[in-house]
UniProtKB/TrEMBL annotation, chain A:
Pfam families: RNHCP (PF12647)
InterPro entries for this protein: RNHCP
Organism name: Actinomadura syzygii
Top-rank lineage group of the source organism: Bacteria
UniProt name for this protein: RNHCP domain-containing protein
Record domain RNHCP: where: 13-100
TrEMBL record, chain B:
Organism: Actinomadura syzygii
Pfam families: RNHCP
UniProt cross-references to InterPro entries, sorted A to Z: RNHCP (IPR024439)
Boundaries of every RNHCP domain copy: 23-112
Name assigned to this protein: RNHCP domain-containing protein
Length: 120, 132
């Protein structure tokens, strides 16, 4: 499947990040088309699922890390204008600091004390 | 303890929705009978025990506009800038995502299991061991 995807992406194709302005190659090192900036992980709301609301072209901020059953990480993006949520697989050269910061953020600001869980 | 900014909190208002709301529902995941009144939120939309939800609302909480009615499994947690946890649900039948506030009586152990899920990855654990 990844071969079909990579055939539709030119190896020289690039895009500018909507947030940090970084010019990145559209082809990720794992051979699939990337949809978020590897530096700031922001995305742009262009692709929408079929029959969904029309695309708005606005900035999508990364809000969370989701873990699939096979252990792969996905980044959940939220559109800053229309509030639509999407999840996308991470690529190998994504910013590890931002990924880790999102993964540990719930534990840094717990709504209940975590001390009782130490006894479990 | 949580680091919270002590600012004046906005009272959550109930969104306009269809009249005649149920006062209780049965969870599709664990069959627990759950009262609709929840501490800390005016829209309870997931089971406090297993955190499973049902795909009923479309854009606004309580609008009942989604025609899917599929089961929504808890996927991950995100944190608002004011430090409040939000639960991201993933619809098992139509793949839609939705984000909702947690309620005061939600199962703390179930929430914590979702919060530590990214960190219990074996590859990550191996990577951290090499760093330290």
């Amino acid at each position: 499947m990844s071969k079909d995807v990579s055939r539709s992406v030119l190896s020289t194709e690039t895009f500018d990040c909507v947030r940090c302005g970084l010019n990145v190659a559209a082809l990720a090192p794992d051979g699939v088309r990337r949809n978020h900036c590897p530096s700031c992980l922001h995305s742009r709301h262009v692709l929408d699922r079929e029959g969904g609301r029309p695309e708005c072209g606005s900035q999508m901020a990364p809000i969370s890390i989701a873990v699939l059953r096979n252990g792969d990480w996905m980044v959940v993006h939220r559109c800053s204008r229309c509030g639509e949520l999407t999840s996308n697989p991470i690529s190998g050269d994504d910013n590890q600091f931002i990924l880790m910061r999102m993964a540990v953020r719930p534990l840094a600001q717990p709504p209940f004390p975590l001390e009782p869980f130490g006894d479990l | 303890m949580p680091r919270r900014k002590h600012r004046r909190e906005r009272v959550q208002r109930r969104k306009a929705g269809p009249e005649g709301r149920l006062d209780a529902f049965r969870c599709v995941g664990c069959r627990l009978d759950v009262p609709a009144d929840a501490p800390g939120t005016v829209h309870r939309n997931h089971c406090p025990h297993c955190l499973t939800s049902l795909h009923l609302d479309d854009l606004t909480p309580g609008d009942r506009r989604a025609g899917c009615r599929g089961r929504m499994a808890p996927l991950s947690l995100t944190v608002r800038p004011d430090g409040e946890w939000m639960l991201i649900h993933h619809c098992v039948s139509c793949e839609a995502l939705s984000v909702n506030r947690i309620a005061g009586d939600d199962n703390a152990l179930a929430l914590l299991r979702i919060a530590v899920r990214p960190l219990r990855d074996d590859r990550l654990r191996a990577g951290l061991r090499t760093v330290t």
